[in-house]
Design brief:
With 196 residues, the protein is mostly helical. It is 65% helix and 2% strand. The chain is built from eight helices and two strands; from the N terminus they run ββαααααααα. Strands 1-2 form a two-stranded antiparallel ribbon. A hairpin with a 2-residue loop joins β1 and β2.
């Protein structure tokens, strides 16, 4: 493609976000091809034997699994909008750390405290990114009003939904994801994590 005789290249601008999206897409296709067997084996967390190796894989793998196209698109669209900006600001290794930390925290909590529910999807990562994004404009000695509003609206909605609305959404995962993003955003803002 060229504009005014200059070629425009497509850039691989956010390797972690693009890689994450690709893995989610492949896991969704695998789930459809295997009629959910691969999703149950690798890409969702539920109570299973601690002697089973796949139990530990699922503590991370659940963030790649999705129940269907609408679930996948809802999560991935937000990740593709917010994620590249965060990866550019904080660095690929930090964003990978946020994703894996969110997966591990939400996976273990679901495994321990919700033995009768199956958790899958990237919504915890979405909430981590939403709260993390509000740290991008933080300055020493001040908390942005946008961070307070985002935290109040998103976390407040999840608490309300968890108490009063019965659905298949793991509100605790959203809250834990948001808290992980906020906590790691605070640490990264204080330059306690390297940015590369």
């Amino acid at each position: 493609m060229s504009v005014n005789n200059r070629k425009i290249k497509v850039s691989f601008n956010a390797p972690v976000i693009l890689g994450f999206t690709g893995i989610c897409f492949v896991s969704l296709l695998l789930g459809m091809i295997t009629k959910g067997r691969s999703t149950n084996l690798l890409f969702s967390v539920y109570r299973s034997s601690m002697l089973n190796l796949f139990t530990y894989i699922r503590f991370i793998g659940h963030i790649f699994g999705h129940a269907g196209w609408s679930h996948f698109i809802g999560n991935i669209m937000l990740i593709l909008v917010v994620g590249p900006l965060l990866e550019e600001k904080y660095g690929s290794s930090n964003i990978l750390f946020v994703i894996l930390s969110t997966a591990l925290i939400t996976g273990i909590v679901n495994f321990m405290f919700f033995p009768h529910s199956q958790l899958l999807g990237a919504s915890g990562v979405v909430f981590a990114f939403i709260l993390l994004s509000s740290f991008t404009s933080i300055r020493e000695g001040s908390i942005p009003l946008t961070f307070i509003l985002v935290a109040a609206i998103y976390i407040g909605e999840q608490v309300y939904n968890g108490l009063f609305i019965r659905d298949n959404v793991s509100n605790l995962t959203h809250i834990l994801g948001g808290m992980t993003g906020a906590g790691l955003g605070f640490v990264m803002h204080k330059n306690k994590m390297n940015r590369y």
